[in-house]
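haha ok so turns out i had the wrong file open the whole time. this is the CORRECT one, sorry everyone. sequence first:
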Amino acid sequence: MDAEAGREPGLDRREKLLLIAARFFLTKGYSATSIDEIAEAAGTTGPALYRIFDSKQDILDQLCLTGMEMRLQAIQESIDHHHGDPHATLRKLVRVRINFAFGAWGAQAPITLAEYKYLSPAAARQIDTASEISLSEWLRCLAQIRPQTSTRELLATIYAVLMEITYVALHIGDLDLDQDAKGILERTAMAGLIPGQ
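then structure:
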C-alpha cells in the first residue's frame, strides 16, 4: 500500500495522513494497522506522526470526525439551497451522499461503522450526535413526501439507501458497469426512497 490515498489536491498534511490511515483501516482494520505502516506509506516515521496525532486512536477519531463534519456541512447546504421543496432536497441529499461516498473521504462512513468500538468516548458522542442530526434531516424530508408511511419504515428505507450507496462506492472496482455508476445509483436510491415515482 502506498501514499496514493493521500495525494488528493488541496489537502493539508494532516488530512493527507488521515486518508492514508483510512486505506489501512478499511482494508486491514483498525486493530491490525500499526502506526509504523501508516508512517511508511506516508513516507515518514512513527515518531513524526506522533508530532501530529496523539495516538492511533486520535487518528481514527479525527478521521471519523472530519468526514462526519464534511457530510453535515454538505447536508446543511442541501437543505439551505432547496428549502421548502422536499423532493429537490431529497434528490440533493442523495447526490451529496453519493459524491461523498465516491470522494476522497468516502471510506469514513464504513470505517466509522466498522471501528466504532475503538473511538474515544468523546468522539463517539460527537459521531452519535452528528449521525442523529443527519438522519433527522433525511427523515424530515422523506416524511414530507411520504406522510402516510410509518417512521420505522422510513428509517429502514433511509438506512437501506445509505448502505447501498456506501457498498457500491466501496466495491465499484468489482462491478462491470459500462454506464455512469453515480447516475445509476442515484436513480435506484430515489426509487427506493420514493417507490412508484
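Residues 56-81 form the longest helix (26 residues).
again sry for the mixup
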